[in-house]
Amino acid sequence: MIFQLMEEKPVPKPRTKEQMAGGRAKRVMPEAMVFFHNWSSFHGRSHRRRSSEPSIKKEHLHGIRKSQLHTLPSCPEHPSYRYDQYCQQCEVPACPGCVTSGLHRGHDVQNISNVFDLMREIVQKDTQELDMFISPFYDTVMSDIETTHKIVVAKHQERKKMIVEVGKNLHKIVDNITQRYLKDENEMEADDLKQIQSLEMRFLRLRNQVRMTVDENHQILTNNDFTKFIGQLLNYTSKNQHFRDVPERFEMVVADFNPSIPEEGELCEIIGSLGITKTKSIDRYRLPILRKITDKSHKTASSSHSYHLLGKIRTGFTRTARVSCSQDGDQLYVCGDSKVIKHFSKEKFELIEEVQTLTGNEPFDITVTKDGVLVYTDWEDGSINIVKGGKVEGLVKLTEWKPQAICCTYTNELLVAIKMADHTQSKIVRYHDCKVTQEIQYNDSRTPLYANPAFVEENKNCDIIVSDWTNQVVVVVTRLGKFRFSYTGNLQTSKNKKFNPFGLATDSQSHILISDCDNFVVHLIDKNGQFLHYIEGCHLQYPWGLCIDKLNVLFVAECYSNDVKRIQSQK
């Protein structure tokens, strides 16, 4: 999240009273000299040593006017004198009496006005450093923290919303299951009752027949008409045997409902767990001294650098635009004004294969993932595509936006510069597994950062670098999308034509390389935007696309000569 900084030797710390009291006075750099407000504390310890060294008169105070002498503190040991001297070894103010006493014998005692001037200069430089570098740095840190705060709050709100949605969905699922079970239960109840009713009707008929037979038999037995009685007995047929054969019947036992209610832990496993927030520690480090950075950059800019042409390859295109190489394997891809992307070996520049785009359109830009897989953007089709095993597959399809520049990050994500089809807006989008995880479009004042992104690249410190065709500027933002600086060319060295940035690359030291097509050079700047030097010579002509491998070997795609040149520094 925070850009990396050069290692610098820390500013020496002021010596403590205990160190000075120990008598081991050691001379330090002027930056380490500090005045204490309690002037009397330095000479509160006794001036035990005396000498006859001549006193230093007030007339030697060239930097302080006589009218100002009364403002200097008086020496508690010599009240008639004021602190108009300063001992470099002891790092304490002194008066003429202190000097003549022998306490500072052999020490570098200077006019205190010189020390005031020196300290004023130090304060001015410190103020400049605080104002120009340290304060903006902490502003960036605070801005990053505020952005992280917003992201964390938004993420937790999103998770809460999802938890509520899960609860609603579970209730809906339970309600649906309940309704289905009730429907099934009603249907089973109806079937069971139908069977029971059928059985009941059958045995009801039999029972009625039995009762009717009993009544008939009672009538025979109670008949007083002997003639009829004899006739009924002669015609009587027993039905008992028929009634003794009881028809088949059934018992019905309704099964109990035994619901399986999951335990809370089992239900949590089914629903899913809440991931714990992870924090990534950012190690402490010391900010460099601004003036040292400036001096070093100035020295580097004026130093001599030479580059050696290791080889070149003829691409076969009429216009060569982009080049991309993997960091580990033998992967070098080149594209231009053709539907074909050519795959070359990096060492011998031999053509390995040709990959044709899925739509037959020219690819806008290409990149190679950490796995050595080719990815390209199709501006006309609005798609981002991947090439696996020689087969082209679509990753992302845009509708209102058009993909332009693309690069693979150190975390194997994709940074894509996209532009509205009507050319009104541009932004950088981060994709992780084909999902948008970040969008970068505006600075803190809601001003658009980009007009027409040509190339995009990520530095080792996770800064995002974009070259803008329309504005002819290189814009650098942090990992979280906070503006860091912009580069509009080297103002110290004039070129024939205006700065025209195209291709981008970054090396192992987080230097940023920018191809300046119209001036036939490549700019090398440090991660803070300070110009270092030009990469020129090697007969560069219209340098366009750039890429660099793990050995810091630079590949330059020349637009109109149709060469890809392999260049290495010779320091």
Automatic annotation (TrEMBL):
Domain B box-type: 75-112
GO biological process: proteasome-mediated ubiquitin-dependent protein catabolic process; protein polyubiquitination
UniProt-listed PROSITE patterns: ZF_BBOX
Protein's name according to its UniProt entry: B box-type domain-containing protein
InterPro entries per UniProt: 6-blade_b-propeller_TolB-like, TRIM-NHL_E3_ligases, Znf_B-box
Keywords from the named record: Metal-binding, Zinc, Zinc-finger
Annotated Basic and acidic residues bias: 1-18
Pfam families in the record: zf-B_box
Gene Ontology molecular function terms on file: ubiquitin protein ligase activity; zinc ion binding
Region (Disordered): 1-24
Native organism: Magallana gigas (Pacific oyster)
